[in-house]
DNA sequence: CGGTATCCCTCCTGATACTG
DNA sequence: CAGTATCAGGAGGGATACCG
């Protein structure tokens, strides 16, 4: 039963590579950061703890579903802590952990790179777009 | 015609915030990096120029469509150059620009953070997951 | 070799309405 | 206040087949 079609072989290569990528810390991190709201939440909390509804207001346009989903995943990853104060009405505070603050430093590095080089990127785009039909 | 429903107001806030996010260099950059293949292409090319099919082999499992799409967008952003040698058969080389090398340094910083802290993240996940039903 | 064109299908997003 | 449950809509990813 030797034979494997080319398609099957490629499929297997793809699966192996997918597994490799999933196991790669860098890609796990990039996956995380690429979540639309993650960097915004981390940036917002870098300044200090916030309540759920404060975050909801600060990140205008986020739906409760996405906010909760984002916060839960960050809590799971140890980026922030969730503290419930069982008063009436309930109060829930979110705060970055040391790990979260470390991440926010990385985000600052990303931000710095972006701000330093975005102009070059925009220039490159204009150049590229203007040459399309020559 | 003063009245705007709550839904309309939120909709507008969302649109404004979306515009803000789209204009934010950091988010533009994160958007870029979050493309599944971008970081892999940049990392591959950091070691030196490569041909199209070399990249296709190195990034096992990438479809020609996605590879081309990724390369084109990076070329447009001035991250890499595309050089066609009109021999037979055709030969196309891709190479990082100085801007691209600069970006690869940032990716190295991301990679370093990931490798340094991924263990803490995994521990946090295990802790979180194991407490789910207590 | 180095792509382009097409279709499909999945996942994610966000709107909405409801609960403790 | 701080969420959860449900549903639909659309963008993007990938497989495939074909061109210069």
From TrEMBL, chains A, B:
Domain spans labelled HTH hxlR-type: 24-122
Q: Which regions form coiled coils? A: none
Entry's InterPro entries? Answer: HTH_HxlR, WH-like_DNA-bd_sf, WH_DNA-bd_sf
- Record keyword DNA-binding present: yes
Task: Identify the keywords attached in UniProt to this record, alphabetized.
Answer: DNA-binding, Transcription, Transcription regulation
Give the highest taxon in the source lineage: Bacteria
Q: Which GO terms describe its molecular function?
A: DNA binding
The answer to keyword Coiled coil applying to this record is no
Which Pfam families does the UniProt entry name for this protein?
A: HxlR (PF01638)
Cite the Gene3D superfamilies for this sequence: Winged helix-like DNA-binding domain superfamily/Winged helix DNA-binding domain (1.10.10.10)
- Record-annotated membrane-spanning stretches: none
Stated name of the protein: Transcriptional regulator
Which species is this UniProt entry from?
Streptomyces davaonensis (strain DSM 101723 / JCM 4913 / KCC S-0913 / 768)
């Amino acid at each position: 039963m030797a034979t494997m079609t080319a398609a099957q072989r490629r499929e297997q290569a793809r699966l192996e590579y997918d597994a490799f990528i999933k196991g790669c810390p860098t890609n796990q991190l990039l996956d995380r950061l690429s979540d639309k709201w993650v960097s915004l939440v981390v940036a917002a909390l870098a300044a200090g703890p916030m309540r759920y509804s404060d975050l909801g207001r600060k990140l205008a346009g986020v739906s409760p579903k996405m906010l909760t989903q984002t916060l839960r995943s960050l809590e799971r990853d140890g980026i922030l802590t969730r503290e419930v104060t069982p008063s009436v009405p309930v109060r829930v505070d979110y705060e970055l952990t040391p790990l979260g603050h470390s991440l926010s430093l990385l985000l600052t590095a990303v931000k710095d790179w972006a701000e330093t080089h975005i102009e070059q990127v925009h220039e490159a785009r204009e150049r590229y777009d203007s040459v399309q039909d020559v």
